[in-house]
Amino acid sequence: MNCYKHPSLISVSKCMNCGRGLCPECTDRFAMPTCEKCSASQERAKKNIKKINKSSIVFEMVITLSVGFAFCYLIKEGYLFDMPKTDYFSSSLDNYIFFGLGAGVVSAYYTLPTIQSLLSTGTAIWGGCFFWFIIYFLKFFIAMSIGIYILPFRVIYNIYRLFE
Protein backbone atom coordinates (compact mmCIF):
# COMPACT_ATOMS: atom_id res chain seq x y z
CA MET A 1 0.00 0.00 0.00
CA ASN A 2 1.26 3.48 -0.84
CA CYS A 3 0.76 6.83 0.87
CA TYR A 4 -2.46 8.57 -0.15
CA LYS A 5 -0.71 11.96 -0.41
CA HIS A 6 2.65 10.79 -1.79
CA PRO A 7 1.83 7.87 -4.14
CA SER A 8 5.50 7.17 -4.86
CA LEU A 9 6.28 6.38 -1.19
CA ILE A 10 5.40 3.15 0.58
CA SER A 11 3.11 3.53 3.58
CA VAL A 12 4.38 2.59 7.02
CA SER A 13 1.11 3.12 8.89
CA LYS A 14 -2.61 3.66 8.34
CA CYS A 15 -4.92 6.46 9.39
CA MET A 16 -6.62 5.44 12.62
CA ASN A 17 -10.00 6.70 11.41
CA CYS A 18 -10.33 5.98 7.70
CA GLY A 19 -7.52 3.47 7.07
CA ARG A 20 -5.63 5.38 4.37
CA GLY A 21 -1.95 4.57 3.95
CA LEU A 22 0.56 7.06 5.43
CA CYS A 23 4.25 7.47 4.61
CA PRO A 24 6.78 8.31 7.40
CA GLU A 25 6.46 12.05 6.68
CA CYS A 26 2.64 12.00 6.90
CA THR A 27 2.73 9.73 9.97
CA ASP A 28 4.94 12.16 11.91
CA ARG A 29 2.81 15.19 11.02
CA PHE A 30 0.33 14.67 13.90
CA ALA A 31 0.60 13.04 17.32
CA MET A 32 -1.53 10.09 16.21
CA PRO A 33 -1.27 8.60 12.71
CA THR A 34 -4.17 10.37 10.99
CA CYS A 35 -4.66 11.87 7.55
CA GLU A 36 -5.29 15.59 7.06
CA LYS A 37 -9.05 15.19 6.50
CA CYS A 38 -9.56 13.17 9.66
CA SER A 39 -7.36 15.50 11.69
CA ALA A 40 -9.32 18.54 10.48
CA SER A 41 -12.64 16.90 11.35
CA GLN A 42 -11.34 16.04 14.83
CA GLU A 43 -10.29 19.67 15.38
CA ARG A 44 -13.74 20.89 14.29
CA ALA A 45 -15.37 18.46 16.71
CA LYS A 46 -13.16 19.71 19.58
CA LYS A 47 -14.08 23.34 18.80
CA ASN A 48 -17.79 22.46 18.76
CA ILE A 49 -17.50 20.74 22.13
CA LYS A 50 -15.78 23.81 23.60
CA LYS A 51 -18.58 26.03 22.25
CA ILE A 52 -21.20 23.76 23.80
CA ASN A 53 -19.37 23.75 27.14
CA LYS A 54 -19.07 27.55 27.15
CA SER A 55 -22.76 27.99 26.37
CA SER A 56 -23.69 25.65 29.23
CA ILE A 57 -21.44 27.63 31.59
CA VAL A 58 -23.09 30.91 30.56
CA PHE A 59 -26.53 29.30 30.95
CA GLU A 60 -25.67 28.12 34.46
CA MET A 61 -24.39 31.55 35.46
CA VAL A 62 -27.47 33.34 34.07
CA ILE A 63 -29.84 30.95 35.85
CA THR A 64 -27.88 31.28 39.10
CA LEU A 65 -27.91 35.07 39.03
CA SER A 66 -31.58 35.24 37.99
CA VAL A 67 -32.73 32.95 40.78
CA GLY A 68 -30.57 34.82 43.30
CA PHE A 69 -31.90 38.25 42.37
CA ALA A 70 -35.49 36.98 42.21
CA PHE A 71 -35.24 35.34 45.63
CA CYS A 72 -33.66 38.46 47.13
CA TYR A 73 -36.38 40.68 45.60
CA LEU A 74 -39.23 38.44 46.75
CA ILE A 75 -37.96 38.39 50.32
CA LYS A 76 -37.24 42.12 50.48
CA GLU A 77 -40.66 43.05 49.09
CA GLY A 78 -42.43 40.67 51.47
CA TYR A 79 -43.93 38.42 48.79
CA LEU A 80 -42.22 35.22 49.85
CA PHE A 81 -42.70 35.45 53.60
CA ASP A 82 -45.32 37.38 55.52
CA MET A 83 -43.01 40.15 56.71
CA PRO A 84 -43.70 43.85 56.76
CA LYS A 85 -41.83 45.85 54.15
CA THR A 86 -39.32 47.88 56.12
CA ASP A 87 -35.76 49.06 55.82
CA TYR A 88 -34.69 46.28 58.17
CA PHE A 89 -33.33 44.23 55.26
CA SER A 90 -31.42 47.08 53.70
CA SER A 91 -27.88 46.16 54.73
CA SER A 92 -25.60 44.64 52.13
CA LEU A 93 -24.92 41.59 54.31
CA ASP A 94 -28.63 40.77 54.41
CA ASN A 95 -28.83 41.23 50.66
CA TYR A 96 -25.92 38.85 50.16
CA ILE A 97 -27.46 36.26 52.47
CA PHE A 98 -30.81 36.36 50.67
CA PHE A 99 -29.12 36.36 47.26
CA GLY A 100 -26.87 33.51 48.38
CA LEU A 101 -29.78 31.43 49.62
CA GLY A 102 -31.54 31.70 46.29
CA ALA A 103 -28.54 31.46 43.98
CA GLY A 104 -26.84 28.92 46.20
CA VAL A 105 -29.57 26.40 45.53
CA VAL A 106 -28.77 26.45 41.81
CA SER A 107 -25.03 26.44 42.45
CA ALA A 108 -25.28 23.55 44.89
CA TYR A 109 -27.45 21.55 42.49
CA TYR A 110 -24.67 21.80 39.92
CA THR A 111 -22.03 20.97 42.53
CA LEU A 112 -23.63 18.24 44.65
CA PRO A 113 -23.54 14.67 43.40
CA THR A 114 -26.98 13.21 43.00
CA ILE A 115 -28.32 11.33 45.95
CA GLN A 116 -30.50 9.28 43.60
CA SER A 117 -27.62 7.22 42.26
CA LEU A 118 -26.55 6.28 45.77
CA LEU A 119 -30.01 5.13 46.78
CA SER A 120 -31.38 3.83 43.47
CA THR A 121 -31.58 0.23 44.67
CA GLY A 122 -33.97 0.99 47.50
CA THR A 123 -36.66 2.86 45.56
CA ALA A 124 -39.05 -0.06 45.16
CA ILE A 125 -38.63 -1.09 48.78
CA TRP A 126 -38.88 2.38 50.32
CA GLY A 127 -42.04 3.59 48.69
CA GLY A 128 -41.41 4.65 45.10
CA CYS A 129 -42.68 8.15 44.28
CA PHE A 130 -42.98 9.37 47.87
CA PHE A 131 -39.39 8.31 48.50
CA TRP A 132 -38.17 10.51 45.62
CA PHE A 133 -40.20 13.44 46.98
CA ILE A 134 -38.34 13.08 50.27
CA ILE A 135 -35.00 12.80 48.45
CA TYR A 136 -35.67 15.98 46.44
CA PHE A 137 -36.72 17.81 49.61
CA LEU A 138 -33.50 16.71 51.36
CA LYS A 139 -31.45 17.69 48.33
CA PHE A 140 -33.11 21.14 48.30
CA PHE A 141 -32.48 21.57 52.03
CA ILE A 142 -28.82 20.57 51.68
CA ALA A 143 -28.43 22.87 48.67
CA MET A 144 -29.96 25.76 50.60
CA SER A 145 -27.68 25.08 53.58
CA ILE A 146 -24.35 24.86 51.77
CA GLY A 147 -25.18 26.87 48.67
CA ILE A 148 -24.33 30.20 50.23
CA TYR A 149 -20.80 28.93 50.92
CA ILE A 150 -20.33 27.22 47.55
CA LEU A 151 -21.62 30.15 45.49
CA PRO A 152 -18.50 32.38 45.42
CA PHE A 153 -16.21 29.47 44.60
CA ARG A 154 -18.57 28.17 41.92
CA VAL A 155 -18.80 31.61 40.27
CA ILE A 156 -15.00 31.98 40.25
CA TYR A 157 -14.65 28.45 38.86
CA ASN A 158 -17.18 29.17 36.09
CA ILE A 159 -15.42 32.41 35.12
CA TYR A 160 -12.11 30.50 34.99
CA ARG A 161 -13.67 27.80 32.77
CA LEU A 162 -15.27 30.44 30.54
CA PHE A 163 -11.98 32.18 29.70
CA GLU A 164 -9.94 28.99 29.54
How would you explain this protein's 3D organization?
- The chain has helices at residues 24-27, 36-76, 92-111, 115-118, 123-126, 129-162, and strands at residues 13-14, 21-22.
- The model has no long low-confidence stretch (mean pLDDT 76).
- It has 6 helices and 2 strands; from the N terminus they run E-E-H-H-H-H-H-H.
- It is an all-alpha fold.
- It folds into 2 domains: 1-34, no CATH class; 49-162, no CATH class.
- The chain crosses the membrane at residues 57-76, 96-112, 124-151.
- Keywords: Membrane, Transmembrane, Transmembrane helix.
Which terms summarize this structure?
two-stranded antiparallel ribbon, 164 residues, mainly alpha, membrane, 2 domains, transmembrane helix, transmembrane, 2% strand
Largest sheet at a glance?
2 strands, antiparallel
Mean pLDDT: 76
| β-strand amount | under 5%
**SSE pattern:** EEHHHHHH
- Helix percentage: 55-70%
Radius of gyration over alpha carbons? 27 Å
Total helical elements: 6
Number of domains: 2
**Would you tell me the structural class of the helices and strands?**
mainly alpha
User: Which overall shape is indicated by the principal axes computed on the Cα atoms?
Assistant: elongated
Keywords: Membrane, Transmembrane, Transmembrane helix
